[in-house]
Amino acid sequence: MHDIHQVTTGAQLADTRSLMRDFVAWHRERHVEDLALIDRYFDAAEFERELAGLPGKYAPDRGTLLIAYADGQPAGCVAMRDLGGGFCEMKRMFVPGAFRGRGIGRALAGRVIADATSAGYRAMRLDTSRRQDEAMRLYESLGFRRIEPYYALTDDLRDWLVFFERPL
């Protein structure tokens, strides 16, 4: 059993920051052949500024920052931010290995999609690395379709990332 909460308390913020740091560490451990790309995508100084300022760009009413708990432990997180023009972006979706296979990622994605719909967005976008097969299968099962990049990036990052969009 798991519960999903809008991040509002100091303890929830601390747990979310920890999960987001674990997300980057997981990338580095799982995709050692992509370390240079991971370090560019998750610029350390910029990432720490984002974490220190949470909820920041993910604050309501145009954003959301969610955390899942299972068995009393932080079990996943996801965020959503405004991109303008009726678009929002899902960010920082992560479920630690010990909690995978319980439907937590699907539940977090469903909740963030519902929040985006309630906020009046017309579509949700996201990016993920090409090596995240499980994530891509989840996103496609939720109605996301591959699209061209929706922001400027270098050719090597363009080859490393996959972009998705889902109408709301």
Automatic annotation (TrEMBL):
Q: From which residue to which does any coiled coil extend?
A: none
Checking Pfam families in the record gives:
Acetyltransf_1
In terms of superkingdom, the source organism counts as Bacteria
Which PROSITE patterns would you find in this protein's record? GNAT
Which GO MF terms are attached to this record? acyltransferase activity, transferring groups other than amino-acyl groups
Which InterPro entries does UniProt cross-reference here?
Acetyltransferase_Enz, Acyl_CoA_acyltransferase, GNAT_dom
N-acetyltransferase domain boundaries? 21-168
Among PANTHER family, the record links this protein to:
FAMILY N-ACETYLTRANSFERASE, PUTATIVE (AFU_ORTHOLOGUE AFUA_2G01380)-RELATED
Name of protein? GNAT family N-acetyltransferase
Q: Which organism is it from?
A: Neoroseomonas oryzicola
